[in-house]
Write a structure and sequence with these properties.
The chain is globular. It is built from 10 helices and 38 strands. It is 16% helix and 33% strand. The chain has an 8-stranded mixed beta sheet, sandwiched between helices. Helix 1 runs antiparallel to helix 2 and helix 6 packs antiparallel against helix 7. By secondary structure, the chain is α+β, with helices and mostly antiparallel strands. It has a domain of 239 residues: Alpha/Beta hydrolase fold, catalytic domain (Rossmann fold), CATH 3.40.50. A hairpin with a 5-residue loop joins strand 11 and strand 12.
Amino acid sequence: MADLLHALLESRSTLLADVSGTGRVLARSDRAGSMQLYEVDTAGRVRQCTAFDEPVGVAAAVPGRRAAVIGVDAGGNERFQLYLVDLDAEAPVSSLEALQPLTASAAHGHLLAGVSPSGQEVAYLSNRRNGVDFDLWVCGLASGEHRIVYAEGGYCQPSSGYSPDGRLVALHRPGPRPLDSDLVLVDVRTGMWRMPLPHPDEAAEIGAPAWVDGEVFFASSTVGRDRAGIVRHDLSTGRTTPLDGVGDQWDASVVSGADGRTLLVIENAGGASRMRLFDAPSGTELGPVPTAEPGVVASYVGAPPHLSADGSQVVYWLSTPRRPGDIWVHDRRSGTTRQLTENPDPVDPAVLAVPEAAVVTSFDGQAVPVLAFRPLRAEAGEPDGGAALPVVVVVHGGPESQAVQSFNPVVQALVAEGFGVVVPNVRGSTGYGKRYASLDDTTRRLDSVRDLASVHAWLAGAGFDPGRAALWGGSYGGYMVLAGLAFQPDRWAAGVDIVGISDLVTFLEHTSDYRRAHREREYGSLEHDRAFLEQASPLRRAEDIRAPLFVVHGRNDPRVPVGEAEQLVAAVSRRGIRSELVVYDDEGHGLARLANRVDGYGRAVHFLGEVLSAPTLPAGPG
């Protein structure tokens, strides 16, 4: 199993970044050890374009020329700078100094917001005006001139870029409540802006516009509804109409082809993607887009699926529980689907586990969805239904996120080592409607921790050993690990915390200035909710932690500063509890480099193998 463990932790993935006008695909892949830029032609031939010490965080093609805009930070500090890359270079460029820089303020972040259809300008968001608010800027590629065109405040985020006529740039601005965002369209010539689909009286989220033409777009929306449906909006009339048959059961998002006649709707069906094509003028469904097996095609880590100009081809990234992400192409005319890229040294999917979906009933009757993975019987390739298994409960970050049916090398590595793995979507998770996602907001934070206790109570009946149950999580999931160990010490036998929050007060005090207001909407504010933030902080209950703990952090983390890990480990170690802290000096919020992932996750899996080798706790009150 040691060879399989290493192979899984060394798994590489390839993400869709963009598709050029000639049909060539821009991809980001860590096949060389960290995410770098690659170009893939229509025959599937892959050519590496960059070979930096730092990962490439984003990439977009420049229309009309053989070039791409990329974003690169330093050591995971998330202060991205933008550069222009020549795609016709004979060899991969290995030095940032060899590129044309588009931004050069190392103390600030720059988020690519789009490349104009003419290929003459680049839009980006940056906090360089005051260090906090992300304003919209436009850079002329020929002139090098930078103009600020929107400075209304807020932690604004990129959307789907320019409108087809090059007049408007879309961005998302956070609203005053959790899970609340506005779509803002900025005229880059005049600086005038508008906010279509307003929702002043409710928290709602508006998705990225899928343009039909310069005046009409489709977008996802939760205005007046629990699930995200798709609406058509006409800027000239202000009229909004729903796309029938979408968003009743599952959240949906949408993209369009360049000619505006075809729509691709992506539905989140319980953590797996389902794609359907629609005729934009009539709203008529044209049929499904098949995938090789259930998985996801849309994620915050890469670009959404791409429709060719005439809507005849769909290019998409697909990741499934047994397959790392690769790029696929579906041709509507022939009905064929083919895999365009293949990551090096793939693990045979037949030896990997497929999750079982289940539901846990929590303390208040709320249904909590979970995915359960079990080791396979080697001779049959089927789940091992023998003795009760030691189990690792893996909690996703966010908290406004979802554990989906995508490849997770840590989950499969744990299964390969003989653990059962249970992946819950505790209350506060997205993908199950905005009511469910709001159930952990501010002073209801500990209700999501109580969901963990309900998951623990469910384990024995599902064939897992509750006396050998550990928690594993990253970022907010790391907070959940520490909260589980601190608030439920009689249930959990060990914990692995990756870049997690140990104290909600010190986290909010020391996180990056531009993130503080954004995070206070979800967790509560230092000014008004300090007493509850203290009450909900695992560090304040460190004397109750008695389970062994393994902690991983990045030295340059701008979101959850490394002090969150250091103070918790110090408090636990003083009491003689086994605790190990591994800090990587070249990482930020998570492990972006393959060598660090193999080292850190490998050590964490080995740690769990040691501490869960025999029952360490009674079955617990559950």
